[in-house]
Amino acid sequence: MKKSLVAVSVVVALGAVWTGASWYTGKQLEGRLDHFISKANTELKEAFPESGIEWQAENFKRGVFSSDVRLILSIKGTKSKSEEIIFKSTIDHGPFPVSSLKRFNLMPKMASIHSELEQSEPLKDLFNLTQGKSPLNINAEFSYGGSLSSNINLSAVNHTETKENGEKRVLSFSGAQINAETDRHLNAFSFSVKSDALSFSDPTKKESIILKDIDFKGNGKKGLFDIYIGDQSYGIGEISTHGIAGESDTTETNDTAFKGLKITSNLTEDKDNLNIKIGYSIDGIKVKNMDFGSGKIVLGMEKLDGESVRKFTQAYNDTVAAETLTTHGSSYDITYAAVLSNLHLLLNKDPQFSLSPFSWKNSKGESTVDFKLSLQNIPEDKNALLLMEPEEVIRTLIQSLSLHINVPKAMLVESITQADVLGGEDKTAAEAKAKQQVNTLAQEGIKLNVLTDENDVIGLNFHYADDKVKLNSKETSLHQFLLDNGLVGSYDDADGEQNQHDDAETPVTE
Prior knowledge:
InterPro entries: DUF945. This is GTP-binding protein YdgA. It comes from Xenorhabdus beddingii. Pfam families: DUF945. Helix content is 28%, strand content 43%. By secondary structure, it is of the alpha+beta class. It has a domain at 350-488. The chain has a 22-stranded antiparallel sheet that branches. Helix 4 (306-327) packs antiparallel against helix 5 (332-342) and helix 7 crosses helix 8 (427-447). The longest helix is centred in the first third of the chain and has 46 residues, at 2-47. It is globular and about 85 Å long. It starts with a helix and ends in an 11-residue tail after the last helix.
């Protein structure tokens, strides 16, 4: 009897503690939610000043174990009108939210939130696509430390629209899974988006566009210069079109497939600089069962002065935000002017730019381009550049510049042949013509001392640094190079200045 009484007492005590803790958590949560929304609005305004997007929380109804609230995403229009997207949300209080216990998640947390879209006029068409169901469902968890972890499910769609003339349009979407995490102050985040397929088709014309294996992911944290650093990747396994008529013959279709498309970005920093790499790649292009090859390109921006980039970003955001407030929207001209007027900030402290690697590969070989440019600190008086001659501008702005190009002739012939065959030409005739074109290109380039032809590879090697230019095997001074190519006039000053370039051409020693 005593043991039973003790057991009951323990259960009652635990229930009382849980109830008290849940009630207290619910009371604390309202303030935390307001803080989180305020912080999110600040970040949105800084990152997208022209968007007019703002979050609000309304009708917070606090209970003991759960609360209800309407989260409103307000989007300001261009004529002082706003559209609202409303999320109906139920919040289960910690330390052990009921919804988490149902999933056997026993880790203490401040709250667990379930949200669904509320039907409204702006979302009428979207709800029609999902047959009245919420197009998305959000499950999120707040930790006591303030971090947020969310899981978003986008509903599958299979919608057919029939026009008055009987033609049909079909939209099919497998749904998507989105995961996102952020800390209390939105200083660090991660996300992922996955979807199997998205397609648009016209059964009448037997045409379709299909996207498969959509995979986006990324992470970032706010760095020393109030700019998020980290990695992001956006990939699509395949984009294909079927039944769409080609330009040369409307009765013939050009079935096309782009495989393995990917965009990546990597942003890092040290105590002074930001370094950015943006990559684009494709694993294959197929048109009419012809493989056109694969390629990749990486754009690099290194040694960007971090403080200057921060000032550029702030100046741009301030300009666009001011224009948005006065005209209820930002114009292209204002945005362009904001970029142009502050562009010099990105050229401070000797930044470096590159295009490396840049390559394209087909069944006959691989062509590559490697480009690197190192700038010098731009002068304080920017107008002085307008008064300079081209030679002086180069010496003032550029530390070094290099360009290396290698194109196998067989690879180029194959690419030209495929393009002509795609246009309707006979393959044998197209290949013969392509060989002639490539040989003519190489011969003319050699005649102009611009290209080389070694081992059936057309090449160009250019390098400039320290007032010297080397083009393939020939090295000259900068002035002589510009003079040889008709880009400047000859010196007509004192002999001393002329003599500076008397020995302009220098033999290259291997």
